[in-house]
Design brief:
The structure is a single chain. The chain has 112 residues and is mainly α. The protein has helices spanning 4-19, 27-41, 48-56, 66-80, 82-85, 88-110. Helix 3 runs antiparallel to helix 4. The chain starts with a helix and ends with a helix.
Length: 112
């Protein structure tokens, strides 16, 4: 999944499932989101390398939600293709992934 429209749609679906309480992220999901959220807090754009690094160090990786893990892998691939990532569809897809990361990281901070 490196197609911006697919990434955007999957991020939006996970945001909705989380907001509606249909998906309860595991601790591994939250830790990965918090780690990526910290990159976002620097004000620098997210990179594929940052995502792969967080996924490689996710503990335990087996506990991460498969949809989230696949979404992040796809986003890393998208970000590696600079021309696509910087286009309007690519930016929209990455923005949705960042919104999902924000929601998961902030849920961690508020204990939800």
């Amino acid at each position: 999944m490196h197609v911006p429209e697919e990434i955007r749609a999957e991020a939006a679906a996970l945001i909705d499932h989380h907001a509606l309480g249909l998906w309860k992220p595991h601790d591994a999901d939250r830790r990965a989101a918090v780690a990526l959220y910290r990159f976002l807090e620097t004000g620098q754009p997210l990179t594929g390398e940052q995502i792969r690094s967080v996924l490689a160090h996710a503990e335990p990786a087996a506990d991460m939600n498969e949809r989230l893990r696949e979404l992040l892998h796809g986003t890393a691939g998208l970000l590696d293709d600079t021309a696509v990532a910087e286009g309007p569809d690519g930016r929209d897809a990455v923005d949705h992934v960042c919104l999902l990361l924000d929601a998961l990281a902030l849920a961690e901070l508020t204990g939800q």
